[in-house]
Structures are given as C-alpha cells and as structure tokens.
C-alpha cells in the first residue's frame, strides 16, 4: 500500500518511483485526521464535517481553454444541471504539465471540498519536471474519461496510410517534421510510440511543440511541419471541414461519426497511449470525506448531462476507482517514463 504523505516541511525524493506514483486510495479505508491549511489562491476552506457537495472547488491544473479546463468545466456543468453540487467552482492553476497545480494541492491537507483534475499529462509532467510531489501526496479518487490522438496531415498530402507515413519517415527521420502539444505531452509520446513500432529511433524525432490543435493545423497548412498528432476532439471540426486529412486514430475502435478514419491498430501499429483524465482528492482527508466525493463523482458520471459531454467531446468512459485506479497509474507511469527515456527527455 502507498505510504502516507510526508509532513509539510519534508520533501519526497523525486527519484523514488513509489513516492511519485501511488496515491492514497479513496474507497472507504480509514484515512488520516484532516487538518486544513491555507493556500495562496482563492478557494474556500474545507469543512471537516458536513455535506461536501454544498461547496466544491474543481482545480484545472492548466490555463483556460485547454483539455483539463474543458474537462473541469464539463464536470462543473453536469454537477450544476443535475444539482449534484450546489456551488461548484473551477479554478485554473497552469504550468509544468500540471505539476504547479499539483504542488499547491499537495499542501492542502484535509481540504476535502477541493479536488484536482489529473491525467496522462500530469504523469508525464511529474517525470519530465522531476517533481518533488506526485500522486502519493494526494488521495486517488477516480479515472473518469479518456480521448485519443489522431494523426493528421494537410488535405493535399500524398500520404494516406500509416505505412505511407512510416515509409517516408524512414527515408529522412530527422528531416521529417512533426507537431503537436507540449514536449512530453500525449501528442509527443504518441509519435514516439509510433516511431518505435515503425523501427525508427525516438531520438531522431524532429518535433515542434504547439499550444493546441489550432496552432498545429496552421503549421501543416503553411508547410512548416509534415504531420501532427492531436487530440481528436481538438481537430475533429477541421477534419470534417476537409481542411486536414485524418490518417489514423490511436483508439481501440473507430470514432463515432468518423467511421471512415481507420485506427492505427487496424493498420498494424498498436499505439496504446490514451489521454485519460480523472480526479484527485487532497491529502489526509477522512474515509467519510473520500466516500462523499466519490458519491458526487459517481452521480455526475451517471448523469445525462455528463453522457452528453462524453458524446460531444468524443470522450470514452473509463471509470476506475480504488486498487484498479492505483494499478492503472502504476502501469501508465511505467509506459510514460519509458517513452520519455527513449526521447532523451
């Protein structure tokens, strides 16, 4: 079982994987006594007792308009529509693959009315930034949804399949220019995994990071880059409009509404990384508080408003809690750290 978070004035060893990987699991086990601490930004202090759904703060560890922000606001909206939380608020704390928000959140001992969005980008951010805090400094709540990257090119690109891309890439690995999100992001890691499956060294990848799908598309259209890997929901409208060409999606099956876009797996390249998102509770919350938060999140996940959000954003339900969620984080961390090492990051 994961260890309890260290005292406030100690710093976990970033080189010890178990301290960065495993959070305390929220599924009714006895938790440590809650002691609220002040934070450097404006959120409401937690009540050690009472109904946590009366006031709930959702932290998106990224700027407005990003994937975590969208996930947090869709969650907020579903809670409001179905009256699952009387006053759900979203607070943005951007930076360093979510580890700035994680660092602040790890000091909020016992602040049960605040939860933090997490996901693949945070797994990469913890490893890439050698974060002194990790999942072990939180309470694991739930893995909720995931979306998938899609490989795109300019509409007039001569390449139509993954084999076409790999063939051209092998001829000039370093001269073949890719784009996507930040260094170490799911977009970057998806390209790395595709390279390894295609027999191309990940260290030979030429990658130009951008802030999102919109910027990535502009580089394709201007000829600055050859291909991009982006979240499907970021570029689906541009695929639909014919501005860019979708060559393969890193999903287990074809995306609803875009059934003409084949998966990478059915083309012989089993890219397994997904952009998952979920929620963490603060350190040192009680078992009762963990149960309350999971109850609110479970009801949100089961609501019609959330199901509509899944459909609109092309997200897939991947609900996990307890030991299952903890084991998933362990495996995901291992995958991400291996790919980052291959990239030389």
A few lines on this structure:
The chain is built from eleven helices and twelve strands. Strands 1, 2, 3, 4, 5, 11 and 12 form a seven-stranded mixed β-sheet that branches.
Description:
- The structure is a single chain.
- This protein is an alpha/beta fold and 345 residues long.
- It has two domains: 17-147 and 274-342, Bordetella uptake gene, domain 1 (D-Maltodextrin-Binding Protein, domain 2, 3-Layer(aba) Sandwich), CATH 3.40.190; 149-267, D-Maltodextrin-Binding Protein, domain 2 (3-Layer(aba) Sandwich), CATH 3.40.190.10.
- The protein is built from eleven helices and twelve strands.
- The chain has helices at residues 17-21, 67-81, 99-105, 120-128, 162-171, 186-197, 213-222, 232-240, 287-301, 304-313, 322-342; strands at residues 24-25, 56-60, 88-92, 114-119, 139-147, 149-154, 177-180, 206-209, 227-231, 244-249, 275-281, 316-320.
- Strands 1, 2, 3, 4, 5, 11 and 12 form a seven-stranded mixed β-sheet that branches. The chain has a five-stranded mixed β-sheet with strand order 8-7-9-6-10.
- Strand 2 (56-60), helix 2 and strand 3 form a beta-alpha-beta unit.
- Helix 2 packs antiparallel against helix 10 and helix 4 crosses helix 11.
- The chain is globular.
- The relative contact order is 0.20.
- Residues 1-22 and 27-49 have low confidence and may be disordered.
């Amino acid at each position: 079982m994961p260890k309890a978070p260290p005292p406030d004035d100690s710093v976990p060893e970033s080189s010890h994987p178990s301290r960065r990987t495993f959070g305390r699991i929220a599924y009714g086990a006895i938790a440590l006594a809650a002691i609220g601490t002040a934070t450097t930004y404006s959120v409401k202090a937690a009540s050690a007792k009472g109904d946590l759904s009366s006031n709930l703060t959702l932290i998106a560890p990224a700027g407005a308009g990003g994937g975590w922000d969208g996930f947090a606001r869709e969650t907020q909206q579903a809670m409001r529509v179905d009256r699952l939380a009387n006053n759900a608020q979203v607070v943005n704390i951007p930076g360093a693959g979510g580890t700035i928000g994680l660092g602040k959140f790890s000091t909020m001992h016992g602040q049960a009315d605040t939860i933090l969005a997490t996901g693949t980008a945070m797994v990469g951010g913890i490893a890439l930034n050698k974060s002194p805090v990790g999942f072990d400094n939180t309470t694991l709540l739930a893995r909720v949804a995931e979306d998938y990257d899609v490989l795109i090119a300019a509409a007039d690109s001569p390449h139509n399949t993954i084999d076409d891309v790999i063939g051209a890439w092998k001829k000039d690995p370093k001269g073949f220019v890719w784009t996507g999100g930040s260094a170490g992001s799911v977009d970057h890691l998806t390209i790395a995994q595709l390279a390894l499956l295609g027999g191309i060294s990940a260290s030979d990848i030429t990658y130009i990071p951008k802030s999102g799908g919109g910027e990535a598309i502009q580089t394709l259209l201007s000829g600055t880059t050859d291909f991009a890997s982006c979240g499907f929901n970021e570029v689906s409208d541009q695929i639909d409009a014919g501005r860019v060409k979708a060559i393969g999606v890193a999903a287990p099956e074809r995306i609803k509404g875009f059934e003409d876009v084949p998966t990478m797996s059915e083309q012989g390249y089993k890219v397994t990384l997904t952009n998952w998102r979920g929620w963490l509770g603060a350190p040192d919350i009680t078992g009762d508080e963990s149960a309350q938060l999971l109850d609110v999140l479970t009801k949100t996940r089961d609501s019609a408003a959330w199901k509509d959000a899944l459909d609109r954003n092309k997200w897939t339900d991947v609900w996990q809690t307890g030991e299952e969620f903890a084991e998933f984080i362990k495996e995901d961390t291992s995958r991400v750290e291996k790919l980052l090492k291959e990239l030389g990051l």
